[in-house]
Amino acid sequence: MAVDNQAIGTAPPAELIFGDWYPALRTDTLRAGKTAKTLLLGIPVLLGRKTGGELFAMRDLCPHRGIPLSAGWFDGEHVQCKYHGWKFEPCSGQCTEIPSLTTFDILQPTKIYATSYPCEERDGYAWVYIPEAGASRTPASLPPVPELPKFSAKYRSAHLVADLPCNVDHGIIGLMDPAHGPFVHQAWWWRSRASIHQKEKHFEPIPQGFRMSAHAPSGNSAPYKLLGVYGEPITTQIDFVLPNRRYETIRCGEKWFSSLTTVTPVTATTCRIDVYAAWNVFYHVPFVTSIATFFGARFVGQDQQTMIEQAQGLRFHPGLMLIDDADKPAKWYFALKQARLTGSGAHPLPGPVTLRWRS
């Protein structure tokens, strides 16, 4: 679901978190011997799959004259620049050939590198590690590549994507906002304004984030009610982890549903939401994946439309406010992000916290 940012104006920029993994593209778009390009954190990135199946990610700029490498060629092993024919091994970025050199030249092509990034495949996504400026291309110790928790060998899965015309901060606090559901997501299959009631949830600190502790899910959402057919207690747990990840796990005896939602900065003023979900509930129901994808797309589309409308207001740079318990998770996010960016600051949750709001 693409967004015409020109039509709605420019959203304010956000400070970006480097030194972490971000989902770049679905790997089913990366066939062997082919490349694709995208933007991550304002960086043009060229991705591809070598003949042997290995994924790679490079900065989509030739270090010689700055032309995009995506304008050139990829033979399954090497990326070649269109301008002067320089060749690069894409996983390391090492230059292997400069056609213009003669026997009189002393320049060694192998000492030249285009920028390459660690790239791994998880859950059908090419995850790319974008380092801090000036950091080594191959850090000695990288954080684990994010992956959706799964609780059985057999499961179904689906994914969704939507572009958002706002900076990553607005995308993330919209993602974790607990009070918009009855208004943004009004639908017979989800909830309505008439279902609003007071809720009480318990939160606890986790490394680089916070957790909504396992609890019985809201009774005013139809999808949760469907799990009642299994006759087992239902619990849901939600984790937010910097820089951009929301994990939700729903358990009902041996049945489960889990999702990983990420809000990835494309530029400092725009972002992209990706949702990957897996489940073994209603595993044998025909067309269950198509049904889940249809309703999931409607749900994400409602968020996307709201962010498009919000962006129309944000271009006028209004004063904004965060209030009371419903906005506490957003306050925690900003505090965690600031601590990450500055390398200092205590976790905003000193211990378990109880929040109350109506939704």
From TrEMBL:
<keyword id="KW-0411">Iron-sulfur</keyword>
<keyword id="KW-0479">Metal-binding</keyword>
<dbReference type="InterPro" id="IPR036922">
    <property type="entry name" value="Rieske_2Fe-2S_sf"/>
</dbReference>
<dbReference type="GO" id="GO:0051213">
    <property type="term" value="F:dioxygenase activity"/>
</dbReference>
<keyword id="KW-0223">Dioxygenase</keyword>
<dbReference type="InterPro" id="IPR017941">
    <property type="entry name" value="Rieske_2Fe-2S"/>
</dbReference>
<keyword id="KW-0560">Oxidoreductase</keyword>
<dbReference type="GO" id="GO:0046872">
    <property type="term" value="F:metal ion binding"/>
</dbReference>
<dbReference type="Pfam" id="PF00355">
    <property type="entry name" value="Rieske"/>
</dbReference>
<dbReference type="GO" id="GO:0051537">
    <property type="term" value="F:2 iron, 2 sulfur cluster binding"/>
</dbReference>
<feature type="domain" description="Rieske">
    <location>
        <begin position="21"/>
        <end position="128"/>
    </location>
</feature>
<protein>
    <submittedName>
        <fullName>Phenylpropionate dioxygenase, large terminal subunit</fullName>
    </submittedName>
</protein>
<keyword id="KW-0001">2Fe-2S</keyword>
<keyword id="KW-0408">Iron</keyword>
<dbReference type="InterPro" id="IPR050584">
    <property type="entry name" value="Cholesterol_7-desaturase"/>
</dbReference>
